Fold this protein.
Amino acid sequence: MTGEVALSLGASGHSCADPRHLNLPAGPRMRFPAGWALIEHPVQGAILFDCGYGPRARDAMRAGLRWIYRRAIHACSSLHTDAATLLHQRGLTGDDVRMVVVSHFHPDHIGGLAQFAKARFVAHAQAWRHISESGWLGLLHAQIWKELLPEDFAARLQLLDDNGRRALDGDLATLGEGWDLFGDGSLHVIGLPGHARGQIGLALRTRAGERVLLAADAFWRREQLDRQQELPWLTQRVAMDDAGAYRETLRRLARFRDTHPGAWVIPSHCAETLALWRQRHPGAVLEALD
Ligand SMILES: [Zn+2]
């Protein structure tokens, strides 16, 4: 059937945080894999949704304010967990990647972009405008590290704006509006505002017929979708572009999940969701023990 793709999940590095920062019960520090996805499209080839940490993020985190970020969240990444390295498990190199859909511009999502020299990039116009128009303090506050971007990033960038956005239909209708990325119904980009300006997710159907929504950082742990709880004030200050939009996005995703019990809603950093995917799809996870 057309419009269906193969999906593998990857993780390139991780960070750790206190569960109370997400209003979850107290316990040991939780580990958050820096997740991404490989989508193999029958016509368009290899497409990534984000790429985790990577060499440039490691370099950046060696000094100054970036070093403080690394220490604060115990960020960890190494060569053997880089997305471009893990793709070898699929017989692919960085140069085989035709497109990277950038959910948002935080370092744990774009740290490896420079390894994909032949890829086009897709991002929301609002996210790019925010980067282009912010000074260093604004970028620091938004946790955007421009040095992670390839030098020719803008030249390879395709922006999604209001013009191409349409009401979604079928089982995606509850999600509102989105962009049909290739016009073939295989990949729909969904706006997920709140955590970061212009954050986007990706809806697809696998060859096994499963509906999947890659939800980026719309939430971090699957329990959050059930609990729908307010985040602590400090988390809202540090990790939110717009707390109201975050809550609305979370409600929209919960509604989608509730009306489509068989669908996978996969946030970028949920170790438990990754473990469930691994269990149900042996071989469809690209990762290295680190
Ligand atoms: Zn983020």
In short: Residues 104, 106, 195-196, 217 surround zinc ion (CB under 6 Å). The two ends are 38 Å apart (CA to CA). The CA atoms of residues 9 and 37 lie 4 Å apart.
